[in-house]
Structure formats: structure tokens, C-alpha cells
Amino acid sequence: MSDLIISLEKVSLNYNNEINSGIRDIDLSIRKGEFVSIVGESGSGKSTLLKIIYGLLSPDRGEVYFKGLHLEGPSEKLIPGHESMKMLSQDFNLNLYARVYENIESMLSNDDLSGKKQRATDMMKLLGIEHLAQKKIVELSGGEQQRVALARAVITKPEVLLLDEPFSQLDAMLKTQFRKDLKHLCKNLGITIILVSHDSVDGLTLADRMIILKGGQIIESGRPEDIYVNPSHAYTTKLLGNAFTLSAEEARLLGIKSRMNTVMIYPEWVQLTSGWTGKKYLVREVFFKGFYEDVLLERKNIQLIAINYKPGIYHKGDQVQVRILRYLEFE
Predict the structure, then answer these.
(1) Regarding predicted confidence, which is higher, 169 or 255?
(2) Rounded CA gap, 175 and 165, in Å?
(3) What pLDDT is attached to residue 274?
(4) CATH number for the domain including 33?
């Protein structure tokens, strides 16, 4: 028996008859228990795709299937959205003046009151929020509220959890904790998770498979590490690693012989070296990042960034030797 849970075949949806709006010709298959991230810049069609998968929007063309059966859209159901899925968006939809355990328990029926209470307790323990059980939502921080919202979403044991930009309102520390929570849920509950984000870090750190969306179309799909190191499109390198873009002529001036029109270089592929390379660069700026620095370099009016893991060595105005360890070429 196939473990395929969601599939899209040639799915398109345009807004206001604009060619570059919505999504176009999406073919996508997602398997049970898979953690998939859909990454793209604002306006790439990420949220539209997620809403179609959930059943909140109907495509103009193509078919959406859940476990091989047609997935009904809003025109076919009184209450849009598939009953085996839950969506967690930036709006947590919590009862602010009810207690944490009440918000979570309210998602379950009253058929088994003792079982209901136990399930809520187990879910709070799983997400590390049992100490907040008696607090009202209004008394919680944004990160704590998001974990309550996550508990509400998964306590009914959905087969698929959909996340629309779930980290947008969280600071760096809370993002790390929430990413850990999602990994924990995927592993322990076997839930299929589909995450939409404009932040490439979310996809790189969490997903089993990353999908790159541009202009409403899928341009790449695969393991995050494979897409990062060997992307098929120059756009992907900019999205995932803030790569520098060089023309073939600029690359030649830096000693790179390219057969293609565009050369992309990730900062970690630019090595600052004490050895003689014959390629001196001027340090334009040094940006302290804690345990490392971004060093902005310039040679022949062409700029690159190198990562320095020993802060304090380089200063603005220094002349440094550089070795480019690797680069990518694109037409």
C-alpha cells in the first residue's frame, strides 16, 4: 500500500487574470510522516499553495488528492478545510481569557471527560507547557501562546499539520525552541508537516524535503543539503545562502574561468588565507556576528563576503589574501 498522502496534478490558480499571480502547473506528491518546507520570497505563491492543499481555495485547473481521493474545495463543503488536517497560522485563534488547559481541552469532545483531561495533560507535557496549565492566555508571552496554539492544533491527532509563516512573530531564541517542538512532533506523533516560510533557515534546519517556489512555480525540490550545495537555479543560491552574483566578465577579473553567464559564490567558499595566492583583496567592512564575522572584500571594484571564525584579526582597510574554494555556474 502506498504511503502517499497528498498529491497535486497540474494545479493552477490565478488572481485577477494576472499571469504572474497565484500558482501555475504545480505537480507535488507528499508522503505520510514527511516534513516538507515550501520556501520562496514574498508573492511567490506559498500561502496560496498551502490553502489549496488544505481546501480553503479551489484551483482553476488541475486536481488535488488526499489519500487518492479528490480533495473538496470551499465550493463543495459547508465548512472549508479537510477534517484530517489542521492549519496553524500567525493568528493563534486562542481564547485569551481562558486558561491554557481549557484552550487545549476545548478541541476534544465531552464523550470521555477523564480521557479528555489526560490527553490534554499529555500534550502539554510533550510540548513542555504543563507548568502553564492554570495560566490565562493573556498572561503568556507570544512564544508560549504559539506553543498552546500548536497543542490545540495537534491534540485531535490530525494526519497533516499545515504551518503558514509560523516563526514570523518570534525572536531568535523562541524560533529555535519552536523548531525543536516541530521536529519532536513529527518524530513522536508521525504527523505529516507542511511548512511555508520566506526564511530559508526554516527549511534548511527542519525539512526532510525542501521545495523552492518562484513566480508561482516549483523550480527545485529535494533534500535541503542537496539543494543548497548543488542547486539547479541561481535564484536558489540567493534565497538560501545570500550568495554573491558575478557576471562571466567579473568572474574572469577574479581569476575564475567560467563557461557560463553567471557565477554564484557562497560566503563560506571564500577563504581568507595567510598563504600567498597572488589575489589581494581590500577589506571594506567587518561585521561582527558574535562567534564569527562577515568580512566585506573588494578587488577590481568587485565585492565578495568571506566568513571569519576568529574575530578581531581583520580590520577595515587591510589588504588580505583570498582563495575561492568553490563556485557555481549558471546560464
Answers:
(1) 255
(2) 11
(3) 73
(4) 3.40.50.300
